[in-house]
Amino acid sequence: MNATTEEFAGQVVGDIAATLSGVMTNIGHKLGLYAALAENPALSSHNLAEQTKTDERYVREWLNNQVAGGYVTYDRAIDCYSLPDHHIPVLVDQDSPMFLIPALEVAASLWFDESAIASVFRTGDGIAWGDHHHRLFCGSESLFRPGYRAFLTSQWLDSLDGVREKLTQGARVADVGCGHGASTIALAKDFPRSQYHGYDSHPESIETARSRAADELGDHGVTFEVRDAKNIPELDFDLICFMDCLHDMGDPLGAAQRARRALAPDGTLLLVEPAAMDNVADNINPVSRMYYAASTAVCTPCSKSQEVGLALGAQAGPERLSKLLKDAGFSRVHVATSTPFNLVIEARL
Question: Which pLDDT score, from 0 to 100, does residue 219 have?
């Protein structure tokens, strides 16, 4: 075996270790192990087990896995474990835009759907969003929600021309492909004078969105309706949002054309998509690796299950997204801002 092969084998071992350890990470979150570590400067396995009402032997083995992966540190002198402060936003703080554990729920759903995904490779067919394992829906919403709360009503809106002022005074907003309503609810909380209409083609997601809105907003008047993107009502919306969903649609051009007709003359379309560059060679990084995997297993099959089936993909990039919006009739299109995980594009008539 030559050195290059050994090096690559080491890379694959690392990937397998990360895959197996992802289960450990999810368990650490669900059992409150990370949270307990975050609240204490150092804990023995016995202390951690006692605080979380878990079995010490399992906890000790879990801790050593976490140390080997660099998630937790170990002090041999006192036989105690610690969670570094800078790991807390990623592993513990569910309001942090860097909280990434929900991505493991998405990964879990793909293992459940592995046979169906392999099948569409052979047939070229699609897989409807609603046909995936239910862990995909909750995982996706939990993954996106902190970013919406952290960035949508502050940085992203401030990058759009005049939108904050309209929402403050009272505007009409459509959230297309709203899923569980995380982005709709985030907007409604910060701009209560505006009217919000969430649309999604997945009935179960709309039911969840209505329940979440009732819990978090009371009788605010936010409405959620089962509609696909090509059939939203033409109500002269001041703002139409497509939050991490346009690339999942079978006919994103048709959806954008409908949005153009549904906008008020001085309205704004806000398109949020996964971060990507325009060329594959510029997308060789861990974030794009994650997004290409999700695109292969979820986004592309979702699009191919629908009318047209354009299969835009989660890594379409700003050039292709901008061209699609211009083809739909928008005359002013530009990347307004970005994060390590998102592209934010503004389009005007």
Answer: 78
Sign of CA dihedral 297, 302, 305, 308: negative
Task: Taking residues 47-69, report their average pLDDT.
Answer: 98
Contact yes or no for 310/303 (Cβ under 8 A): yes
Instruction: Indicate whether this model's pTM tops 0.90.
Output: yes
Examine the pLDDT at 154 and tell me if it is beyond 90.
no
Q: For residue 300, what are the CA distances in angstroms to 199, 207, 245, 294, 315?
A: 21, 25, 12, 9, 11
Judge whether 17 and 55 are in contact, CB under 8 Å. no
Which stretches does DSSP call E strand in 155-217?
172-176, 195-200
pLDDT digits (tens, 9 = 90+) for 25-51: 999 999 999 999 999 999 999 999 999
Return d(Cα 64, Cα 66) in angstroms, integer. Answer: 5
User: What is the bridge-based pairing of β-strands 342-348 and 332-338?
Assistant: antiparallel
Predicted confidence (pLDDT) per residue in 235-247, tens digit = 999 999 999 999 9
Residue type, 231: N
In the predicted model, what is the mean pLDDT of residues 165-193? 96
Task: Note whether 302 and 129 are within 8 A (CB).
Answer: yes
Report the distance separating Cα 96 and Cα 86, nearest Å: 12
Kindly state the tokens that stand for 139: 């995982």
**Closest listed residue to residue 287, CA positions, set 338, 248, 222, 235:** 338
Backbone dihedral region for residue 53 (phi beyond 0: left; psi -120 to 50: alpha; all else: beta): left
Write the DSSP assignment of 14-48 as a string of letters. HHHHHHHHHHHHHHHHHTTHHHHHHTSS-B-HHHH
Report how far residue 87's alpha carbon sits from residue 306's, in angstroms, rounded to the nearest whole number. 40
Name the residue among 144, 127, 136, 153 with its Cα closest to residue 178. Answer: 144
